[in-house]
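Predict the 3D structure for this chain.
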Amino acid sequence: MLFSKGEVYHLVVVIAQLLHIGKCANLTDVSQLYDYLLDGYNKNLLPQYDAPTSIIVAIQMAGIQKFDEITGELEISTVVFLKWKDPRLAWSPSDFGGTTSLLLQATDLWIPIMYVLKTTEQSDSIGTRSVQPRVFSDGTIVWNSGMSVSISCSVDVTYFPFDSQNCPLTIQATAYNLSEVQFVLGSHTLRTSFYTSNSQWELKESSVNLTSYGITPGVSFDINLKRRSDFFVVYIVLPMICLGFMNNLVLIMPVASGERMSVAVTIFLSFVVYMEIVTDCVPESSSPIAYIFYYIVVLLLNSSLIFIVCLISLQIHDKQKSVPRKVQTFTNYMRFACFRSNSSDTKVYPFQQDDELPAEKIETDIDKPDNKYSEITWTTVGKTFDCYFAVIFITSFTLFTLVTWNNLYYNTDL
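Done. Predicted structure below.
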């Protein structure tokens, strides 16, 4: 005997399996399966009534079509993944040529009715009925449908241009209660494998949470967007900082140039223009107001103060009368050593212990006039005035700018 009984048995099993694998379903098998599944099937009834129908929900973020910050309208393209089980659509693959799955028309099956809340357009049921669900032999139904939806967001531009926005996409099965339908999360974050990046907004990691409105099941997708701020930094932030710094240097300009007032007015008008530019980019909202507006207002006030200080400085430089002693005393006190004359009236002579100091070399300033304030003129007073106010303005502007933009970048309150 060439083969034992055990070996013959195994050979027969292998041949049977090969024959089964090689057999493919034909059109007749699929047609019979189609008629078998839909014969007596009522799409108006829930898949089951003895237990809630669990629907697995996941969303693939495809891209951001538009985000209008003025109206708060966010238009996105998504793919909704739905998966549930309908025991009425189960079959044995061996009875239908080994068919394990079948595409059916969505209009022939029970499809969960779900709506997106807080839409800016007329709300339609989620899913495109022209997309065919795939039904598996155990009754599992998988339905992946594309959807473009516009949702309403509450825009918070407090930290513009480094702001982040959170837009909730809430799906609710308004026709069912929790005893009939339950949602199950297919993913705890938005899927982004096919996401197309946006030039203005960066999609950050978003969370998914189950929600319920009374007895109605729902699921909420929190879409977190971070503004791409490079354009605004180059177009708005850096020019404003440069103008603000230049504005503080007006007091260092020579009075004789006669350009102090014109430069101060020009920079003031530049701030007004930039405020209009920022207004066009930021939604008109009083609660909250973008901190960048406060920054521009402070720069405008600073520019106004510099203009007033320049007027006072010009008045000081143009005075022709003698400087009062009190003004001389105060000016001399405020000046640093570097402003004072390095000359000294003290004369030093070589002296030896046994020598007598010649009387002609003994000098005293008792009868000499007081030269302490002889060098203090109105020009000196004006320069001292300009120096101190320039230091004050530059220091305050630098500190205020660093604190403001640091808080805006890290989204912390001023």
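The first helix runs from residue 5 to 22.
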